[in-house]
């Protein structure tokens, strides 16, 4: 049996693009029927249902989130196991059932500029809580909020009733949580390749690296980035495939490597890789309102059934921003790259 995992839910848009950019992480799950501003900051019934169904534990604290102009842009509810960030009408912008809240243990005013943009104020400047960079203002991007086109995943609050169930299949081992693609590098393809190679090194064959690169994976990423994405403008699927094939020998001890690149039957092929071979694949996504155009590593699949009918399918991915607990709706996947053989 493959290990089942609690996961973040999100809807996404994918396709091929010449410039693969890397933007924010996590996701939204839309409930757009309520247009009443929530006061006070107690979580809505919808948010409470997500917290309960995802086994996030007890609520610890709810923060009010501001922009630098003093406007309330949303709320963050910290839980024992994760957190939920939602806007002023109850739409969930991002959540995690297993990652610590970025605002945990902060009792002063906190600020939010959208996914991965968490700030607090110090000495008149806004300091990013995770990256410690400073900025003079924090403005919330309304474009990330769900709407009728983007809110493609609807959370099933009756998942335990007869005929309504979920099946999750994922790798036996975890992928490494790496977050090297920062600032304007736009090298998420190189980072996804690094994460996939290191999974193979850790769990399949030491030929996919060497002790130095295993202990210092940044050097593997940087070698691949300089060879594949040196100009800070990302890479499209064909270019990434070609770049890997031309440069794998510089960061591994492989004598040969064969990859498959495909845009057909991606969900099934990923499932076969996970179930039969216990290995991940690289997935291309495009146009997501939060991630933008992005390469990720997919290490599992999830299916949801309603009235015994398959209604949703997701890829489980490592997003290249330090999280490996993300769900991507399969219908927006664009391109899959995976290992078929090596020596």
Overall spatial form: globular
Query: Could you tell me the number of beta strands?
Result: 15
- The radius of gyration over CA amounts to 20 Å
Q: What share of the residues lie within helices?
A: 10-25%
Describe the strand arrangement of the main beta sheet, using strand numbers.
Answer: 4-3-2-1-5-6-7-8
SS class:
alpha+beta
Q: How does this model look, in words?
A:
- There is one protein chain.
- The protein has 343 residues and is of the alpha+beta class.
- Helix content is 19%, strand content 28%.
- The protein is built from six helices and 15 strands.
- The protein has helices at residues 45-53, 188-203, 211-215, 217-228, 237-247, 266-277; strands at residues 59-66, 72-79, 83-86, 92-96, 110-112, 118-122, 125-128, 134-135, 165-170, 257-262, 281-288, 292-306, 309-318, 326-329, 335-342.
- The strands form two sheets. Strands 4-3-2-1-5-6-7-8 form an eight-stranded mixed beta sheet, with no helix packed on it. Strands 9, 10, 11, 12, 13, 14 and 15 form a seven-stranded antiparallel beta sheet that branches.
- The longest helix has 16 residues, at 188-203.
- The radius of gyration is 20 Å and the shape is globular.
- Residues 1-40 and 143-161 have low confidence and may be disordered.
Question: How is the topology of this model organized?
Answer:
Blueprint: H1 45-53, E1 59-66, E2 72-79, E3 83-86, E4 92-96, E5 110-112, E6 118-122, E7 125-128, E8 134-135, E9 165-170, H2 188-203, H3 211-215, H4 217-228, H5 237-247, E10 257-262, H6 266-277, E11 281-288, E12 292-306, E13 309-318, E14 326-329, E15 335-342
Parallel strand pairs: 1-5
Antiparallel strand pairs: 1-2, 2-3, 3-4, 5-6, 6-7, 7-8, 9-12, 10-15, 11-12, 11-15, 12-13, 13-14
Helix pairs in contact: 2-4
């Amino acid at each position: 049996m493959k290990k089942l995992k609690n996961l973040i839910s999100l809807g996404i848009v994918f396709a091929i693009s010449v410039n693969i950019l890397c933007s924010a992480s996590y996701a939204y799950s839309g409930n757009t029927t309520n247009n009443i501003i929530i006061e006070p900051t107690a979580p809505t019934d919808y948010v409470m249902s997500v917290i309960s169904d995802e086994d996030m534990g007890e609520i610890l604290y709810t923060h009010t989130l501001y922009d630098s102009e003093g406007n309330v842009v949303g709320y963050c509810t910290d839980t024992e196991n994760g957190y939920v960030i939602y806007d002023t009408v109850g739409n969930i912008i991002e959540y995690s059932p297993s990652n610590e809240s970025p605002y945990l243990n902060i009792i002063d005013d906190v600020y939010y500029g959208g996914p991965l943009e968490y700030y607090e104020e110090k000495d008149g400047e806004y300091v990013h809580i995770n990256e410690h960079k400073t900025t003079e203002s924090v403005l919330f991007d309304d474009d990330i909020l769900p709407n009728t086109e983007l809110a493609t995943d609807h959370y099933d609050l009756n998942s335990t009733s007869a005929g309504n169930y979920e099946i999750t299949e994922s790798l036996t081992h975890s992928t490494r949580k790496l977050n090297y693609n920062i600032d304007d590098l736009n090298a998420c393809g190189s980072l996804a390749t690094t994460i996939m190679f290191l999974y193979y090194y850790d769990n399949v064959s030491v030929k996919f690296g060497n002790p130095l690169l295993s202990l210092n994976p940044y050097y593997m990423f940087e070698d691949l980035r300089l060879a594949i994405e040196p100009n800070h403008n990302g890479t499209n699927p064909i270019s990434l495939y070609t770049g890997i094939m031309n440069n794998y020998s510089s960061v591994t001890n492989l004598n040969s490597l064969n990859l498959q690149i495909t845009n057909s039957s991606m969900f099934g092929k990923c499932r076969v890789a996970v179930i039969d071979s216990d290995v991940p694949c690289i997935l291309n996504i495009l146009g997501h309102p939060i991630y933008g155009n992005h390469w990720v590593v997919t290490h599992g699949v999830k299916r949801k059934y309603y009235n015994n009918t398959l209604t949703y399918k997701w890829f489980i991915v490592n997003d290249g921003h330090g999280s490996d607990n993300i769900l991507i709706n399969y219908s927006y996947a664009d391109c899959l790259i995976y290992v078929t053989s090596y020596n």
